[in-house]
Amino acid sequence: MRFKAVLAVIVVLAAMLSQAQAIAELSYPPHEDPAAAREEMDAYFFLTHYTGILTLISTKNYSDANRLIEQLKFAYIPEDLKYIIQRYNNLTSELTETLEQIDEVLCNASALMYQYRLREAYEKLSEASILLGKAETLLGDIEDATVAISNRLGVFAAPAESRVREAYDKIQSVLQKLRELENEYLNLLKSIKETASNIEEEELKPTEVTLTLNATKVSVGGPIEALGDLKSNGESLPNRTVTLLLDGEPVLVATTGLDSSYHAVIKLPYKYVHMMTVKALYTPVGDDRGVYLASESPPASISVVFYETRLEAVAPDTAHPGLPITVGGKATSVDGTPLGGRQVKVLLDGALLGEAETNVQGLFETEVTLSPLAQAGQHTLTVMVDPHGVYAGASQDKILNVSKITPEINIRAPSFLILPAGVHIEGEAYSSLGPLEEATVTLELAGSSAFVKTSQDGRFNATMEMPLNLLLAGFQELEVGVEPAEPWHAPVQARIRVFIVNPANIGVASAAFISLGAVIYTRLAKAKPRRKRVPEVTPTLREARFAPTLKPEVRFEGVMGKVLGAYFKAMRTIETRTGISMKPHMTLREFLWEVKPKLDGVADAFTDLTFLAEKTLYSPHVPGVADSLRAEELALTIDRVLAVGAA
Asked: What is the pLDDT of residue 587?
């Protein structure tokens, strides 16, 4: 009976061995995806990035600063720091915008002062004063936030000579430069105010310019006459120039006659707005400077007449990168009259895709092709009819969902294998548009891989050589990935299960279990129970019972194996030197956090090696020779440095 019991145990153990083997092949399974693991904000990155931004602001490179601030919107921020970092980003963006407005307003105020346009200059100076007060508040908030974030990131706990503390000192220096820029603007404001005060003390003569239009309603693109005169305290001012402004922009210059009157004809632009405003402006030049003040007439309004265009555009809701779509529609006037000969443009997110022209019925149709690089997601498709004469333009936006077509894969492969063997695999890759031609097919099974291309009819076939390995028996996944050649198709993967048996390893394992069973049976048979006597346990058996479980050796093959092998070599060196072991439930990242405080001199090297191993395990990236060389170099550095430390 005892012998039968031993044999039963052997059978059960043999049945479970395929699962045990899978555990043995990877002693420390990283069960957590690094993308979902806890992340930490890099204090050095934060400080150096914002030092660059604030430096650009302090040198008045506001557009470049805004560009860098926008990039930070795509940076990963841990949840516990998200609010304070986003607030810091918003404060910096608002300060940039405020300082840029101050620069522009003060420049305008200076120009107005030069033209003796005191009233308008004072309005600008008042606006600048408000903006400077806002800038001072924002800069103070940024200074406080810099200290608060640095404290949260552990900057003040770092050694005084560390690069993090050096980065903190640099950002404080740049903040001082921003204070100097603020004082520069404040001094400029005071200087312009002093200039205005000096002009007022000169008691310059006031002037008055008038403006009259011959019509209040004009067709777009049509002419309109402007009349008026220029005087100073009732005195005529002949041979002076008067500038006519249309919606604030100079469009014409007229000269006053002997009676101080002027006359000009303004041709309205083809600007399809319902109202425009005209003003007359006199600014002293030449000998008039220092004698007369500038003046501006009250505004005169013009009602602009034009006809609206009605557009009805038709376009699909979905499209695919690199494939054409048809866009059509109709252009009419408000009363339904067809508008022939009108130019039509089709744009995707503001970029021109194609053009067309309406026929006599006002209809148009064109075929446009999306860029092969068009990103998946929602895009704005704009259909635009250009203005023409007295007819305004029109545009219509539509949501266009861009997506890639997901192909399908049929796989034919054996469901049972005995190693070693050559496995013949074949199949087809196709989509709703037909077979996938020249697509790259990747096949992986139990550590072996192969690459083939599909034929014109989408078919593929390959033979994979499956050598003997550490596997005993069990199901393995055959993974087939297809990378289409066409930009409108998405990559796709499919898996099937194959039962693989390794007779050589099963034989060795069976022999070992039978030998073990025989030994146990023999000992059980010789053992004779005695009354009131506790059987003595031999030292050899006690040592066997309580000996620590050894971690199985892990063998890796190929470039990927070299990367992972380098990591495991370094990991075991670190376990020996630090006394900290990786537990079966730990991820690579968790082990890094556990041992990092004790890795004097090799913390950065082991961090880089951990990230490289995670990238190899989790991402679709296939490691190359450069990756394996880098991993082995890092492992060698860790071993050498820790060996010196131990000595």
From this structure: 82
For the CA atoms of 303, 307, 308, 309, the dihedral, rounded to the nearest 10 degrees, stands at -160
Q: Identify the CA nearest to 264 among candidates 315, 235, 300.
A: 300
Q: DSSP string of 15-45?
A: HHHHHHHHHHH-SS---S-GGGS-----HHH
Contacts of 236 (CB under 8 A, 6+ apart): 229, 230, 256, 258, 259, 260
Q: Which residue has the higher pLDDT, 615 or 248?
A: 248
Residue 502, pLDDT > 80, answer no
- Which sign, positive or negative, has the C-alpha torsion 125, 131, 137, 141? negative
Question: Residue for token digits 């076939």?
Answer: 461
Q: Please say whether the beta carbons of 436 and 458 come within 8 A.
A: yes
Rounded to two decimals, the pTM is 0.55
Q: Cα–Cα distances in Å, from 308 out to 170, 334, 336, 390, 393?
A: 58, 6, 11, 9, 7
Percentage of the residues of the chain whose pLDDT score is greater than 70: 83
Helix and strand totals (H; E) in the chain: 12, 28
366 and 355 Cβ atoms separated by less than 8 Å: yes
Residue entry with tokens 């063997």: 421
Give the whole-angstrom CA distance, residue 393 versus residue 414. Answer: 65
Taking a C-beta distance cutoff of 8 angstroms, is the pair 401, 378 a contact? yes
Q: Report the candidate in 567, 614, 578 with the shortest Cα–Cα distance to residue 30.
A: 614
Beta bridge pairs of residue 226: 213, 264
pLDDT confidence of 617, banded at 50, 70, 90? Answer: confident
Max Cα–Cα distance, the chain, nearest Å: 144
What whole-number distance in Å separates Cα of residue 505 and Cα of residue 90?
64
What mean pLDDT comes out for the span 545-574?
68
What 3-state class would DSSP assign to 429? strand
- Residue 194 — very low, low, confident or very high, per pLDDT cuts 50/70/90? confident
